[in-house]
Design brief:
It contains five helices and three strands. It is an alpha+beta fold and 133 residues long.
Amino acid sequence: MPIYEYGCYDCRKRVNVFFRSFAEVSSKQAACPRCGGVNLKRLVSKVAVLRSEESRLENLADPSSLAGLDENDPKSMARWMRKMSSEMGEDLGPEFHEVVDRLEAGEDPESIEQSMPDLAGGAGGGADDDWFE
């Protein structure tokens, strides 16, 4: 079952369109599953490379992965966090992306933590809760 990515000019979203067969791709016009619009542009999809968990963990344990990390620079921390997230191969959710975006903008980690207290697992504030260090 082929899956293609499209950019919808009507709702301005990136969407996936599923077809039952390759023949259907050429005979049927794609429609946006969000808004029903047909004003779509086919996009080049991201490529996923499957790696074993062991391979990903080995890559994370490599000391060279810390090269260029400056714990006093929020932008450096954000780059490192994005790299580690990519190595894990899982989406860590909207809260993670918000934190990284704010770090990339140069915001202080402590101010992010204060404005998002639930990130550390709720109230408490013990040393184990401080995931920025």
